[in-house]
Amino acid sequence: MADSTSTSGTPSYDPDDYFAQAVTDFTGYTLPPRSTLFDKLSSSNNDDFSDLKLFRMDIQGIDMRAVTAADYSALSGWQVNKGEDYDLAFYDAGGDGAHSSVDMKKARIVMIGVTVDENGRATLWGDGQITGGGAFEGSYSHVQWDSGPMAQYISGSKLVLDQLLTSPSYSTKGFSYSGLSVTDDNAVDMLSFESTGQSFDRVVQFFKDHSDIVNQWMTSLGEDQAAWKGKAASLFWHLLDELKTNYDGYVSQLGGRDFTATNSTLGGYVPKSKLSDALAAAQQALKDAVTSLQTAWNDWASDGQHDPHYHVKKILDAISQWIINNNINHVLEETSYGGETSVTTYSTDAGFKQSVPEYGDLTQHTTWQKIADAAVKSWSDNADSKLKEPAIDALSAVKNAWADVQDAFDDEITNKNKETLAEVLQKEENEIAEEEAKENNDKLNENLNNLNNNLNDNLNNLNDNLNNLGDNFNNLNDGLNNSLNNLNDGLNDNLNNLGNNFSSLNDGLNNSLNNIGDGLDSSLNSLNDGLNNSLNNVGDGLNDLNANDLANAALTSLNPSLLNNDSTKNGSTSLNSPTGGTTQLNGDGTLTTTFPDGSTQTIDPSTGLVTTTSPDGTTSVSQLNPGSTITNPDGSTTTLNPDGTLTTSFPDGTSQTIDPATGQVSTLNPDGSLSTSTLNPTAGSFTTPDGSTAQLNADGSVTTHFPDGSTETLNPDTGQISVTDPSGHVTTSHLNAGDSFTNPDGSTTTLNPDGTLTTKFPDGSTQTLNPDTGQLTTTDPSGHTTTTDIDGNGLPSSSSTDTSGLNSKGLDTSGLDTSGLDSSGLHTGGLDTSSLNSGGLNSSGLNSSGNLDSGLDGGYDDYDSTPYTGGALRSDALTDGTALAASTGTQSASGGTPLNPMGMGGMGGMGGGMGGAGGQGGNSERTRAVLTDPAGGATRRGRGNRATSSVDEDEDVVYTRPTTSSAPYPVGGPGAAGQNGRSTESGDRTREAWLTEDEDVWGTDEGGSPAVIGR
Fold first, then answer.
1. Contact criterion met (CB below 8 Å) for 292 and 386
2. 976-995, pLDDT tens digit by residue?
3. C-alpha span between 598 and 94 (Å, rounded)
4. Crossing angle of helices 18-27/274-301, nearest 10°?
5. Which of 242, 440, 576, 974 lies 20 to 30 Å (CA to CA) from residue 807?
6. pTM value surpassing 0.70
7. Residue 951: strand pairing partners
8. Among 108, 88, 111, 109, which residue's Cα sits nearest to residue 319?
């Protein structure tokens, strides 16, 4: 198709001239505007009758007489009078109606740009006649005229259509006619469809052949071996596998190995790919459209009406007939005699007319101007009746056919396997690390179980020993009670007999008993102290055998990274959506979604607050109430359910429901199938009221990503602040305790004396973060405060270490009988002291405060295991029976007689002298005048003066970089229930197209007809 915006041969056809548009678009031959074709074929401004298109004329007065056939070219033929193509006589009485005087006049007309025969007589074109044109000079007036544009439009259009479908070139390159050429930039080459299609076929064959070669290499190497994993051999095998996958994918996308074409080209070529077949169809559509235009032009020129002068003569013939009927037959002659002399006078009757309907008075310039314009309009209307609809249909057919063809090119040829070798290596290294970690974890559990069993055995033996010690105490207590009872009985007898000496004996007995009590107290206290020391030593030993310490020691010796549960084993830290977005469950319980257009959205399920950041950094906040729905940037919709879950529905019919409290994701696919997965939270991550995202790093520093693309990292320990603006420029400053710093988003951050960070936002909300504990306190503008734990890393969960066999409450002393021991000293329940002085025995001597050390339970402090919550003359001839006096009317002029009686011959002979020769124009044509020449991953914080890291500082930890896609969940503001999990770093890899993106590819102009193929 021709390029309508080229700098050379720019199309200038009239907006409603669809034939000119079609010829120009299909061939590159820029037809001139139809409205300007006859501008250089008009009468001179120096003529009395100026600016008449297609002819020039004058009107002369002649002596009064009766008219003859020679006065009308419609009767006598062309050029009866030399230098005149068309004559037309009429009478002028000054107006219509009866007049007493009248003059005779003749209009002499010369056609401009008409062809002539070998005798110099003007001729009209024959059926389908082609004529040339160019600049020429008038024989008499020497006015410069140019018939080139007329010839270019009428004849050139037909010839260029023929040229496009002429074998073997099928091209309009180099075509020229009547001074108008097709520029190289505009030329159309029908065979370019074929050559372009063959290029695609060669590409398909290349992929076929090389896929087979790569497959042979892979077969010779063998299948992927487990022993190769993580090594160069594995990477080479995967490289070959990726090449084969992509080559086969290209072949499939281009039609497949067994493609069968439905079209063939003009040259008889049969396409071998989908794109080549589509181009053959486009070529056929253009050929059909050009053929239909050829047919329409032949129909237009079949009766010679493609000649504009045909329409001039047709209108002049009609006016001649009108003059005969309404003008000459209403002129009267009267002769009077006086002696030998006579006088003749002329007049008109009431039926006389000289104003032609639609045109005007025959003597006026404006009348002939209207006649010329009417001839041009008649020619143009006839052209539209023959060419307009076929041209519209041709343009529409090509546009529609090429739109269908375009579908084949709209399917982008893409890689089926986009993994890079670095990603393959990382994946295999992660798999190796997971396998080793699983093996180490199994060994650890086995060792812990063995240790637990041994510890239980030792504790049971200790309980037995303590029970035996209790028995010994019971026996000792019984012996003491018996001795005291016997002593008491003897003393009672002696006291009865010695009543007179009771007082002195009682004093002595009291002294003795006090001494005995003191001694017994001392002995029992020593025994009790020894027992307490032994039991305390046992408790200290048990404390030293604390299961947590044992687990930590064993875990640390095997692999420090095992101390943190890997949430990616049973789930993922990101959720992909069908539209290409990615959703992350943050540490503060909010959900952050990154959409394909670069916008982000954070939703807080607990408050319904939705914060949206557009790609230009603009942030907006809205409220999502339970049961209500919002529309996301990717066209999906998200509903906050009454139970706190979020359901997102996608345009493809997929829906995803996530429970922020558990991370559980349910996906309902378009086919009705249901799948579940787990979205693990990202530890230390949280969002701010203005839409920024922040991460509490392993070293206690805080990194914030702002909506404008800048990044800020603040270390509370050192006070150092690093800010990277969107252009990558980095500035560093220092923040002392109590100082404040203004962030890129307009908020201010203060480093408090206790190491916490308080940020105040422009909307009035504040956030305080304790980097040591991971506690985040958010206060919204209304004063509502929410506290969230954004960090949940620790020891392995209870499911990883079996300590069920350990007595978490301390020693089992149920077998030790201490009922005989008085809690405040010596048990004297069996001693009758009714006769003794109550102050004689010191009951405070036994110290019972040294029971089993309460610190035994301290060695079993539970770690937090709570789970997550977040052509010739053809005018009609006058019939032979038509007389000059066809309509005489009633004559009444002083008894005069008609000047032109009704004996004038009919007009059936009109046109006899104007028959045009058929055939082609060119050098054989004669012209009446002389022609002239024409013109990284997150871990637990390891801050020395704060929380201790569970991963060795010197250990290299490899993290996966998964390809992200959009997720269905909007994201929220601050204040949500805390969720803890490991964060992952994500990134998209841009596909390198198999075609250069800036390369010009043939196609169609937007909103118009397709462009030329193969320029």
1. no
2. 434 444 333 334 433 333 33
3. 85
4. 140
5. 440
6. no
7. none
8. 88
